[in-house]
UniProtKB/TrEMBL annotation, chain A:
Belongs to the ORM family. The keyword Transmembrane applies. GO terms for cellular component: endoplasmic reticulum membrane. It comes from the Eukaryota. Plays an essential role in the homeostatic regulation of sphingolipid de novo biosynthesis by modulating the activity of the serine palmitoyltransferase (SPT) in response to ceramide levels. When complexed to SPT, the binding of ceramides to its N-terminus stabilizes a conformation that block SPT substrate entry, hence preventing SPT catalytic activity. Through this mechanism, maintains ceramide levels at sufficient concentrations for the production of complex sphingolipids, but which prevents the accumulation of ceramides to levels that trigger apoptosis. This is ORML2 protein. Ceramide-sensitive subunit of the serine palmitoyltransferase (SPT) complex, which is also composed of SPTLC1, SPTLC2/3 and SPTSSA/B. The chain crosses the membrane at residues 21-40, 46-64. Keywords: Membrane, Transmembrane, Transmembrane helix. It is found in: Membrane. It is a multi-pass membrane protein. GO terms for biological process: regulation of ceramide biosynthetic process; sphingolipid metabolic process. It comes from Polypterus senegalus (Senegal bichir). InterPro entries: ORMDL.
From TrEMBL, chain B:
GO terms for biological process: ceramide biosynthetic process; sphingosine biosynthetic process. It catalyses: dodecanoyl-CoA + L-serine + H(+) = 3-oxotetradecasphinganine + CO2 + CoA; tetradecanoyl-CoA + L-serine + H(+) = 3-oxohexadecasphinganine + CO2 + CoA; octadecanoyl-CoA + L-serine + H(+) = 3-oxoeicosasphinganine + CO2 + CoA; L-serine + hexadecanoyl-CoA + H(+) = 3-oxosphinganine + CO2 + CoA. Its cofactor is pyridoxal 5'-phosphate. This is Serine palmitoyltransferase 1. Keywords: Acyltransferase, Lipid metabolism, Pyridoxal phosphate, Sphingolipid metabolism, Transferase. Residues 125-398 form the Aminotransferase class I/classII large domain. Pathway: Lipid metabolism; sphingolipid metabolism; Sphingolipid metabolism. The keyword Acyltransferase applies.
Length: 153, 494
């Protein structure tokens, strides 16, 4: 389902990450973020990479695993009201191509960041923590799980 | 992309070993001088743990890349052959179920002609005690003429929902008139009376919301509740204590789980005049409960619209409750207004909810605008303009019942008849009342206006006819006088 197309999709959120061009747009956004951070003069390269990694993971966590429901009304009387976007993707089917793409890209970003920070200890800790925060919710075992009731309602 | 490992035959070829050495060495690939045995390995400062982690991550990537990718469509576990078998075995059920011998097929009483006061059923002429024609507007000539004019102008149907060229000026006019009549901010029209409340309830109440509804609610309310997929809690018919009991229960549960309570919407659905039992709901107590427990009230006024209240505005006027206290009033136009369809009226932000289909803010509290689609409004053809014009004319007839109003207690021997709506100035009012008095005097009933020294009175009462009843008047004389005054008012004021 692409932008501007008439559709009978009950919840368009499920198909957003399958739309035409969205993966490319995502990659372009990440590179743009990285370029903007690189152009700040007083930041060193390792710091920029860590910042890219951390900001990317933060934003991804926010959009995919924090915000729940849909910004529009759906005809199914609010079935997805308590589900995050990750849980809504493809109606909960695991290991689809978008889910794999969105799992692999933070890992690749992490590996790049760990290379460019020359495996420094502090950077490693920050990057690893950030990566785990964004990888764990993506596991199929964590579908619908809310630890300590955070973000439940 | 950095090379994680490259191993030569004379080195140990274990994947993990290639990524780890026991010494903690920082090697950047640019440091070409640190090559050992031709092995170029990158090592983390934290040593084994970090490289282990990186190894696991790379394995995870490889696993994801090479494992089966699921798509949304393949959810079937059956093979082609099994699917074919199932299709072969399938026998369709009969379109018409077999009728049992005990319950014969339903037979209808056939009405010929309009179901007005005298109705012809199965060939027999009877007095109609069955149709909901409360105001007798079904066979009214003015309504029929207006409908015929509209039929000539617009044709019969609209061939489209409200969003697709199905909105005519008569629809907007009827909505405007209904909103003005009910004294609310806005109103919207539905094309089928049963579907009005059945679409309005699921437009606001979704999964996870709670609706408190009377046990004797009519079938359309029940279907609306079923479609809304909310939690339904019934209270005994017209029993406000039972309602308070379950509201208290809900409050206790809310206190146990306040985060859940903040996202749960609560509604009470009641009817003004219950179709199933003929009882009137106790609206003032309901409004008190509404403010005490923070629930929204949806009032279904199909039978009470045009019937209760001094001007026919329904049960809110009957009890003197402020119309803004009721969040949504929904009514059928098929009873008193003798048309087809229904309407909902309420404050603007409540009604807009049923109309717009665009992005909007989600409800964050009970009193914030929600914007949504009411499916009965948006996905169904609009009301035929002929019926909308008929409804407007019926509303005109209801509104213009301007006559005299009785001021005074019913046991008082002297009371006043004032004009319901003043004609502008005191002199013209006095003149109109004078004409009524003369009309009655010509027919042998002596009435008088209440005269005042206008300049001397501190608080001048409005002009009125003062009627006095004494012990000397007989029953028949009283009847005659009442009829004559009514006739005079009808002739002179209409």
């Amino acid at each position: 389902m692409n932008v501007g197309v008439a559709h009978s999709e009950v919840n368009p959120n499920t198909r957003v990450m399958n739309s035409r061009g969205i993966w490319l747009a995502y990659l372009i956004f990440v590179s743009l973020l990285h370029l903007v951070l690189l152009s700040i003069p007083f930041l060193s390269v390792p710091l920029v990479w860590t910042l890219t990694n951390v900001i990317h993971n933060l934003v991804m966590y926010l959009f995919l695993h924090t915000v729940k429901g849909t910004p529009f009304e759906t005809p199914d009387q609010g079935k997805a009201r308590l589900l995050t976007h990750w849980e809504q993707m493809d109606y909960g089917v695991q290991f689809t191509s978008s889910r794999k793409f969105l799992t692999i890209s933070p890992i690749i970003l992490y590996l790049l960041a760990s290379f460019y920070t020359k495996y420094d200890a502090t950077h490693f800790l920050i990057n690893t923590g950030s990566l785990l925060s964004v990888l764990l919710p993506k596991l199929p075992q964590f579908h619908g799980v809310r630890i300590f009731g955070i973000n439940k309602y | 992309m950095v090379q994680i490992f490259r191993f030569m035959p004379n080195t140990r070829t274990n994947v993990f070993c290639a990524c780890a050495t026991s010494d903690a060495m920082t090697l950047a690939p640019a440091d070409a001088g640190q090559q050992q045995d031709g092995v170029r390995a990158t090592v983390g400062v934290s040593g084994d743990g970090a490289s282990l982690l990186r190894g696991i991550l790379i394995l995870w990537i490889i696993r994801l890349l090479f494992s089966k990718t699921y798509k949304l469509q393949d959810s079937s576990d059956l093979t082609e052959k099994e699917i074919e078998e199932i299709i072969e075995e399938w026998q369709p059920e009969p379109l018409v179920p077999r009728m049992s011998k005990e319950k014969p097929a339903p037979s209808y009483n056939i009405v010929s002609g309009p179901p007005c006061h005298k109705i012809t059923v199965n060939g027999k002429q009877c007095i109609n005690f069955a149709s909901f024609n409360f105001l007798g507007l079904l066979d009214n000539d003015r309504v029929k003429n207006q409908a015929l004019q509209s039929l000539r102008k617009y044709g019969v149907g609209t061939c489209g929902p409200r969003g697709f060229y199905g909105t005519f000026d008569v629809h907007l006019e009827l909505e405007d008139r209904l909103a003005k009549f009910m004294r609310t901010e806005e109103a919207i029209i539905y094309s089928y009376g049963f579907a009005t409340i059945a679409s309005a309830i699921p437009a606001y109440s979704k999964r996870g919301d709670i609706v408190f509804v009377d046990e004797a609610a009519c079938f359309s309310i029940q279907k609306g509740l079923q479609a809304s997929r909310s939690h339904i809690k019934y209270f005994r018919h017209n029993d406000m204590e039972d309602l308070e009991r379950i509201l208290k229960q809900q409050e206790l549960e809310d206190q146990k789980n306040p985060r859940k309570a903040r996202v749960t919407r609560r509604f009470i659905v009641v009817e003004g005049l219950y179709m199933n039992t003929g009882a009137i709901c106790p609206l003032p107590e309901l409004v008190k409960l509404k403010y005490k427990y923070k629930v929204r009230i949806f009032l279904e006024e199909s039978l009470s619209f045009g019937v209760l209240g001094q001007h026919g505005r329904g049960v809110t006027e009957h009890f003197g409750v402020n119309i803004d206290d009721i969040d949504l009033i929904s009514a059928n136009m098929e009873n008193s207004l003798a048309s087809v369809g229904g309407f909902c009226c309420g404050r603007s932000f409540v009604i807009d909810h049923q109309v717009f289909a665009l992005l909007a803010q989600k409800a964050i509290s009970d009193y914030v605008l929600i914007v949504i689609l009411s499916q009965g409004y948006c996905f169904s053809a609009s009301l035929p303009p002929m019926l909308a014009s008929a409804a407007i004319e019926a509303l005109n007839i209801m509104e213009e019942d301007q006559g005299l109003k009785v001021v005074g207690e019913s046991i008082s021997p002297a009371f006043h008849l004032q004009l319901e709506q003043s004609s502008g100035s005191r002199e013209s009012d006095v003149r109109i009342l004078n004409r009524i008095v003369e009309y009655c005097m010509d027919r042998k009933i002596a009435l008088t206006q209440a005269h005042y020294l206008e300049k001397e009175e501190k608080f001048l009462p409005p002009p009125s006819i003062r009627v006095v009843v004494t012990v000397e008047q007989t029953e028949e004389e009283l009847e005659m006088a009442a009829n004559l005054i009514k006739e005079a008012a009808q002739n002179i004021l209409q």
